[in-house]
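Repro:
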Amino acid sequence: MSDNKILIFDIGANKGNFSKKYIEKCRIVAAEPNPVLIKEIKNTFLNQDLIIEECAASNKNGEIDFYICLDDQMSSCNKDWLTVLRYKNAGIREKIKVKTITLDSLIEKHGIPYHIKIDVEGYEAEVLNGLNKKIKSIQFEYIKENFEDLTVPAILRLKEIGYSKFKINDSKPVKLEISKNDIIKIQEKNSLDMEIYEYVRKSEKR
């Protein structure tokens, strides 16, 4: 990989749509546990600045059950995602064992990324529990269903490791002295199908 490019992590790379947007300007580490999608990513990014980690990001290194949906793009380590929540009618094709790796381990292996994108179908909080170092920017999927159980823990984890400013899609930046009531207020005022990511003012000294 070229050392002259910014490093970003694509966690839950799926078919690589996020990586496609940045592959010309960035070095990318893409984590994806679905064997079918891994093959597609390899073909799409052949001889480009992208390293594939054939595993699921999680809160610890090891193994976990991974549920492959009839629609490959909706597969998840969170069984409830396919049985109770958003894709409860999508159907599970099979359950497989996959390797897991923490964000801390990915950073130790590949270096500190400028940005981390996380889209892991209801497993975002567990992924963030594997991170103990604040990095420049993080974005993750805003889960409408089971908001307090899935999205709130993710935000609280980011608060624990030092994040305080968040932005929901194109809303104004919101500084959170985080409580559940604060987060619910944000939920009510913004579109529920957007992403949350840290907002960092370029002029702000850290």
